[in-house]
Design a protein that fits this description.
single chain, mainly alpha, 16 helices, 0% strand
Length: 399
């Protein structure tokens, strides 16, 4: 089913809540590889295969999700739900994307509490990671020409990537690029050409890995469901950035300040969040289950994701208006190219961990051929990668 991508109201009247739920449950259950991979899979489904929105609108929603606290890919899913069915779509898309990862991670928490360890999933990830690299690279190659439409934006994209590779904090890159291009557009309109100024990005003062907001005491001394909810609500409301930033927040609050977790338990929790599909923020589900059982898992999950729904609900109605004004449109352009540069930076790291031998290189090559030439769906590519990884593991064990 396709809709008019330039008319959100038209889309909202045609996309069923059931279709939204089915799509995002599938994505939440298959989206391995972190936010960059989630975004790439989401684009393939909602832009290429269903035509709900076009690439320009998708990039605007990505930019909006990138500049608010919380998990970017989850917020992008919530934005898409808002575009399609407004408030009901916002809730259905977001909850459907989160639910599979939450259930899988809660099951991991049950195994951890019962047996003191989590299952070995290395063979599956061995085959899936090369596929995710290919899916993300494909999305970047399609989106970058549409995002970097002018020489200024092309040079800005290169500059942002260099800054990220040099370790500059990603939030400084995102906001700095948007604000500088917005100021450059204002100067161009008010005082003549100032394209050169738009590229003078003030990132040198940024420090790698700086968290945006310091966390305060939660006021709870025991890991009750209520305490878990408010502890994770605080984190979800102020945390920008990657899973590494989440690790820093969790260590400071739950290990050092509150003493609810040991260092070893924290590392196990983050590992589970990394190896399960869907949002990395479902690390909170695992921690909640370990500390307070099923009720704790629900409380922690609700706490860390609730701010994402609230932020998107507040921002959603204004995203289209941002594109209609030249200065705010320039801000969106800057954040968009910075977001794609961040995807490239993350993909480089993902590639290093995924393409480790001839087998993974062969998986990536075959996936690329099937994706570019035959346009095979992401679901089949991921399942094929998982099967190949398991087969390679069994072959190695038999030998």
């Amino acid at each position: 089913m396709t809709t008019n991508p330039s008319n959100p109201a038209s889309a909202a009247s045609r996309t069923s809540l059931g279709e939204l739920a089915r799509l995002f449950v599938k994505l939440g259950g298959l989206a391995f590889g972190g936010p960059a991979a989630h975004i790439a899979m989401m684009r393939r489904e909602v832009v290429e295969q269903r035509g709900w929105i076009d690439d320009r609108r998708f990039l605007d929603l990505l930019a909006a999700a990138s500049v608010i606290p919380g998990p970017t890919s989850t917020e992008l899913a919530i934005h898409v739900g808002w575009e399609q069915r407004r408030w009901a779509g916002l809730l259905v898309a977001g909850c459907s994307f989160i639910a599979p990862a939450m259930l899988i991670t809660a099951f991991m928490g049950w195994l951890y509490v019962r047996y003191g360890e989590v299952p070995e999933v290395g063979a599956v990830l061995y085959g899936i990671k090369p596929v995710m690299v290919v899916i993300v690279v494909h999305a970047i190659l399609v989106l970058m020409p549409k995002a970097a439409r002018s020489n200024v934006l092309r040079v800005t994209a290169i500059a942002t990537l260099i800054a990220l590779l040099c370790g500059v904090d990603e939030l400084i890159v995102l906001f700095g690029t948007g604000l500088i291009l917005m100021f450059g557009r204002w100067l161009t309109r008010e005082r003549g050409s100032a394209n050169g100024l738009a590229l003078a990005l003030p990132w040198a003062a940024g420090k790698p890995g700086v968290a945006v907001a310091a966390t305060a005491a939660t006021g709870f001394t025991t890991a009750s469901a209520t305490g878990l909810f408010f502890a994770f609500l605080k984190i979800g409301a102020v945390l920008f950035g990657s899973g590494y930033v989440l690790l820093a927040f969790l260590r400071r609050d739950l290990v050092e300040h509150l003493g609810w977790l040991t260092e070893a338990q924290l590392l196990d929790a983050v590992a589970v969040g990394q190896v399960t599909p869907g949002p990395v923020f479902t690390t909170a589900t695992f921690i909640g289950y370990v500390l307070a059982g099923p009720v704790g898992a629900l409380a922690a999950t609700g706490g860390i994701f609730l701010p994402a729904f609230l932020f998107v609900a507040l921002l959603g109605p204004f995203v289209l208006r941002l594109r209609q004004r030249p200065t705010t449109a320039a801000f969106l352009d800057g954040v968009t190219v910075a977001s794609l540069a961040l995807m490239i930076d993350v993909t480089i790291d993902l590639g290093r961990s995924a393409l480790i031998d001839s087998t993974t290189a062969a998986i990536a090559s075959a996936s690329g051929l099937l994706l570019w030439r035959l346009r095979l769906g992401s679901t089949w590519l991921i399942l094929g990668g998982a099967a190949t990884g398991l087969l390679a593991s069994w072959t190695s064990s038999a030998a």
